[in-house]
Amino acid sequence: MERHEGPPRGKFFAVLAAAVVLAAAGAGAVIARYDGRPPWGTDIAYEGGYLQAVRIVKWRALREGECADMERQGMGGDRAVHDPAAWVEGCLDGAAGRPSRNQGIVR
Fold first, then answer.
1. pTM of the complete model
2. pLDDT in tens, 5-33
3. d(Cα 45, Cα 85) in Å, to the nearest integer?
4. How far apart, in whole angstroms, are the C-alpha atoms of residue 53 and residue 97?
5. How many whole angstroms separate alpha carbon 31 and alpha carbon 59?
């Protein structure tokens, strides 16, 4: 049997360094594009509003305009920051008892 030593160390480290540089460049491009907001931020905001409303409706009914008031008062938290309008839309769907628009979607 013959033992294979693999690529020379210099070549291995050169390829490894190139991969790290490409990964860092790709991460920098994604960060620059989305500026801290994930690409799926609208879905996150919608689901946050939906779940908030479903939790509240278990205890009491939401009044008209209360979803928008909660978002304005900052009750949506970090999820509403991604897309406030989507958060309110999710809240309204949850309060009305409609299924989530993301239900059954495989991503």
1. 0.61
2. 777 888 889 999 999 999 999 988 877 87
3. 8
4. 9
5. 40
